[in-house]
Amino acid sequence: MLVAAILASSMGFIDGSVISIAIPAIRADLGATLADAQWVSNGYLLFLSALILLGGATGDRFGLRNVFGLGIAVFVAASIVCALAPTPLVLVIARAVQGIGAAFMVPGSLAIIAKAYPREERGKAIGMWAAASSLTTIAGPIIGGFVLTALGDWSWRLVFAINLPLGLLALALLWFRVAPDHPEVGRKLDVIGAVLATLALMLIAYGLTGDGSESVPPLSHTILWCGGGLVLAAGFIVWEARSPHPMLPLGLFANIGFSGANALTFALYFALGGTMFYLPMTMIGGWGESPATVSLVLLPLGISLTLLSSLSGKWADRFGPAPLIAAGSLLVAAAFAALGLTAPLHDPWLAVLPSIVLLGLGMGLVVSPLSAAVMTSVDDGDTGVASGVNNAVARVAGLVAVALLGAVVASVFEQNLDSAAELPIFFGVVTDGLSGEEDALRLAATDAAFAAVAYITAALSVVSAAVAWLTLERKF
Is 471 helix (H, G, I), strand (E, B) or coil? Predict the structure, then answer.
């Protein structure tokens, strides 16, 4: 049973950690535009973030084993379609279905451990799950980067194909080793809330990203679709306030600690998600670095998170979460600012790597104290919902970041092409046949576009530090 939970989590972690490195290969192999690449990420994040709270409640309503197994099956089936996708549109649709499967799979991985193990053995089982998840997060990009470098652009398909054996093994273990649990027949599901949240996020993402071109969507397009999304978001809030069984209990936000923790989560994970989506594209498609090099350069982030999380959790118990999160967020801000400043050097080892080390140190100080801040800000009976809300906020932040910063990237890139603006040159795509002067303009435009992202995300990281200091507990 523990192995089944680990395998299911591994599929989600591999997809999440490797996709940014695989995006340049996907663009080259399928001829995908920048907006297509954004939707490859956001199609998945959209349904995962909108449905993850409903997914957890559905497991309680229809039986955890049943829903967990269904989520794995949908995820694996969609992964196969991703691996075989002949066009960007098919890949985007399959990624959206993957997100639906993940929304019902991800909440079940820990819940099924909690139900299967007695309380005195639960900590050890969860520790093994966390260790395996950390290993997957670290090893996934390394393996993916070397496979992409060795086998070429087509091998991005293997990132999705690996989910077939992992998923089938997880389903077999789940079916034969996990006893059926008893559904809570009287539990109500907030289906209307889930539909409103999904449609609101979809319209906002479409308004910011557009329908697949390399350029910035017209202002009229953004106003129309984002406006519709905001109206639906307002409707979602009204519905949640009146629903007898809301998937997002708004009363939790009356607590300033809970509201502050989620506000800084949005700002910080917007910054992290946006930077880590566009950095690999800049290095691989812009500078011409190999995926293997990029995966090695990004390795300190996963290592630092794994090594520092337990220590920062202990420090948060002693000093309170505010000082740790504020200090960590400022380190993250410094790392992003350094990435922007050093972009013109095009040096993965002497410029990017030190910034990633600093980023890892900062996030290592943030993650555990942030989870503790969320859990301690609510009553014991609400910790599960609070954790789910914070998880959803982090994923929505990544969704909005990829969509909104894409407009920034496209706009700055176009403005900096200068005399090469009329040529078929696009951000994050290697362009052959350019003269030395034209290629220099392409590189300068790439650096300027990524630097704009880095400075915006650095500023948001400073905002998250301020919110942490002002709203969370300090024990001194």
Answer: helix
119 pLDDT more than 70: no
Nearest to 80 by CA among 168, 197, 210: 168
pTM of the model: 0.93
**Measured CA distances, 405 to 41, 152, 208, 330, 408 (Å):** 13, 28, 9, 21, 5
* pLDDT for the residue numbered 362: 97
Mean pLDDT of 411-423: 84
Residue appearing with tokens 């017209």: 218
CA gyration radius, the chain: 22
Q: What is the largest CA-CA distance in the chain?
A: 69
HEC profile of 127-175: HHHHHHHHHHHHHHHHHHHHHHHHHCHHHHHHHHHCHHHHHHHHHHHHH
Joined together, the tokens standing for residue 152 give 């070429």
Q: Please name the amino acid found at residue 140.
A: G
In Å, how far are 15, 351, 365, 429, 451 from 142, measured between CA atoms?
Answer: 13, 20, 24, 22, 25
